[in-house]
């Protein structure tokens, strides 16, 4: 097909973080760009993921802050929480962000279609309206979607997509799953006064995170009233006549709940996308396989973000989208470095980490040293909470290079970002030790570990 016959230089399927960044940068390089989005512009993170969820985390923190205020001399009478007010405030901000993302596309003269698009061939997409559009290059950035387990009555459960739209605050919340999404919502609902039960098919929470931090979070959240049933997947969800549901299990007593939230993982959103029409190879979980430049097995089609076989994080998708646009349209081939990508779980308290966990470091390096600081945050002293923070530093014994930093405690994600720069730069434990502490702060523990 001759180049002049294409409708667009680039057609992007999916207007989430990665797709919008790729569209904007490609357009700035002079490409004629269009993007199709079947839901709302902004994607998972902005519309139904990390941004509104973090706002709920902030909202739920006030329950603890207001209780603690009395110990610092503040006396607040007749405290009352209004779920609909918080929910609607969060949703208004989602609307604001969607408008901002849409304006970004418009300001870069990117055409956008508010309908589903599928791949019709190596250089063609088909819109839900039936229109077929051609493009020199196609980028798939459709993200991921919550996985629903195959259990009886699962249609009565909700996922993280629907949780932001609950008509009222439930008194009893049952959460299946113990990954980061499950633990974040468990903390939110627990702080807002709901009775929270977490059930999981394995005996672990936050699989893949550092063992010490996982154990500490389990201990603290149990102390805050969250109940756990491990080795206990839901077998059946049954609605009750008077409202609410009963969840049944194989070997445990049933649990009554007003809301059943399923948070058992996310699957790349490739179902029905027409990948077979371009011979695009996928992995066993439906993830699109790409090379270091984000190219699929079809030469003219690329993919970025959660739909691929790499790290499912918004900042990663943004970097991939930018690198793709620079490579294909900016005459500047670039790849993304996936080493030492920081991560955080906005549980209560939050945890964060970068680099290798202790177990990973022992497996890869053998001889390592582990430094830690187990402390009671100053903020908790007047509050009469005995919860303790924990910071860990994993160090290669031979070179002294810091291989990983992991922490749990108030503001851990904010502190970890600066530590991630040091780990990424390959600094040593001696470099940390040579840095003067910032006192009094929790962050000073990073340079005081012995």
Give a structural overview:
- The chain has 450 residues and is an alpha/beta fold.
- The protein has 3 domains: 3-145 and 267-329, FAD/NAD(P)-binding domain, CATH 3.50.50; 154-264, FAD/NAD(P)-binding domain, CATH 3.50.50; 349-447, FAD/NAD-linked reductase, C-terminal dimerisation domain (Enolase-like, domain 1, 2-Layer Sandwich), CATH 3.30.390.30.
- The protein has 11 helices and 21 strands.
- The protein has helices at 17-28, 43-48, 50-69, 83-107, 180-191, 211-223, 314-329, 358-365, 379-382, 412-424, 429-433; strands at residues 8-13, 33-36, 111-113, 117-121, 124-127, 132-140, 144-146, 172-176, 195-199, 227-229, 234-239, 245-249, 255-257, 259-262, 266-268, 301-303, 343-345, 351-355, 368-375, 389-396, 402-408.
- The strands form 5 sheets. Strands 1, 2, 3, 4, 5, 6 and 16 form a 7-stranded mixed β-sheet that branches. The protein has a 5-stranded antiparallel β-sheet with strand order 17-18-21-20-19, with helices on both faces. Strands 10-9-8-14 form a 4-stranded parallel β-sheet, covered by helices on one side.
- A hairpin with a 5-residue loop joins strand 17 (343-345) and strand 18 (351-355).
- The longest helix is centred in the N-terminal third of the chain and has 25 residues, at 83-107.
- The protein is globular, with a radius of gyration of 24 Å.
Category by helix and strand content: alpha/beta
Shape: globular
The CATH homologous superfamily of the largest domain corresponds to FAD/NAD(P)-binding domain
Number of domains: 3
CATH topology of the largest domain: FAD/NAD(P)-binding domain
Q: Whole-number average pLDDT?
A: 94
CATH class of the largest domain: Alpha Beta
**Low-pLDDT runs:** none
